[in-house]
């Protein structure tokens, strides 16, 4: 259950929405979340030295780090990590700051969090991971970054679907290519073609070798 300060600190609509205006009468928590929504790192730094927890939540259940990651406010992310924000905190859907970055296609946020050793394989309430979310959204840069940092590309959600399956379903062609080049999700047809080609090459090699031996025997 959230504290009163956590329940009241909600800066307007959901992430990506209209936002909100702020007045001098607002609480520290309201100014805190207003600053992170705007990406105002100077105000955020000033508030960080006050008695607010870096993991305080707004009425959506989001921490400042989640908001900064979703918005792509890099300077805010750096500051929040420095003051001890929890990298693994989750919202009501089980999304971490990493998940919010992947969902919103913020590769710069994702790289910062990955460099801070944030978990790249957390599962939400649907069993989806940041890799799956990036594939669903067609966020190619995020997907490449997750591949680069060694995220699990094979993990499946609660429906038994991996990232490459979601990418195919959504028509995210480039994401499918990224995942397949990383060695996952080859279609059975592709495997059959590969095996067939190998057999052809083996037969050609055997025929060439037999012809060579016959040539030697004829001398």
UniProtKB/TrEMBL annotation:
<dbReference type="Pfam" id="PF12796">
    <property type="entry name" value="Ank_2"/>
</dbReference>
<dbReference type="Pfam" id="PF00023">
    <property type="entry name" value="Ank"/>
</dbReference>
<feature type="region of interest" description="Disordered">
    <location>
        <begin position="1"/>
        <end position="24"/>
    </location>
</feature>
<protein>
    <submittedName>
        <fullName>Uncharacterized protein</fullName>
    </submittedName>
</protein>
<keyword id="KW-0040">ANK repeat</keyword>
<keyword id="KW-0677">Repeat</keyword>
<dbReference type="InterPro" id="IPR036770">
    <property type="entry name" value="Ankyrin_rpt-contain_sf"/>
</dbReference>
<feature type="repeat" description="ANK">
    <location>
        <begin position="126"/>
        <end position="158"/>
    </location>
</feature>
<feature type="repeat" description="ANK">
    <location>
        <begin position="60"/>
        <end position="92"/>
    </location>
</feature>
<feature type="compositionally biased region" description="Polar residues">
    <location>
        <begin position="1"/>
        <end position="11"/>
    </location>
</feature>
<dbReference type="InterPro" id="IPR050776">
    <property type="entry name" value="Ank_Repeat/CDKN_Inhibitor"/>
</dbReference>
<dbReference type="InterPro" id="IPR002110">
    <property type="entry name" value="Ankyrin_rpt"/>
</dbReference>
């Amino acid at each position: 259950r959230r504290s009163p300060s956590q329940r009241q600190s909600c800066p307007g609509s959901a992430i990506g929405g209209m936002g909100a205006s702020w007045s001098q009468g607002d609480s520290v928590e309201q100014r805190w979340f207003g600053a992170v929504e705007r990406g105002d790192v100077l105000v955020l730094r000033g508030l960080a030295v006050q008695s607010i927890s870096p993991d305080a939540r707004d009425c959506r259940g989001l921490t400042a780090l989640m908001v900064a990651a979703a918005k792509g406010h890099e300077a805010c992310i750096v500051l929040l990590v420095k003051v001890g924000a929890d990298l693994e905190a989750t919202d009501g859907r089980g999304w971490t700051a990493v998940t919010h970055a992947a969902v919103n296609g913020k590769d710069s946020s994702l790289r910062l969090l990955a460099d801070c050793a944030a978990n790249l394989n957390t599962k939400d309430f649907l069993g989806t991971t940041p890799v799956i979310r990036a594939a669903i959204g067609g966020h190619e840069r995020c997907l490449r970054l997750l591949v680069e940092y060694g995220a699990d590309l094979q993990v499946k959600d609660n429906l038994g679907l991996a990232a490459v399956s979601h990418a195919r379903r959504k028509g995210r062609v480039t994401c499918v290519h990224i995942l397949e080049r990383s060695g996952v999700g080859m279609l059975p047809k592709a495997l059959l073609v590969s095996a067939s080609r190998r057999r052809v090459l083996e037969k050609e090699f055997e025929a060439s070798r037999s012809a060579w031996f016959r040539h030697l025997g004829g001398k």
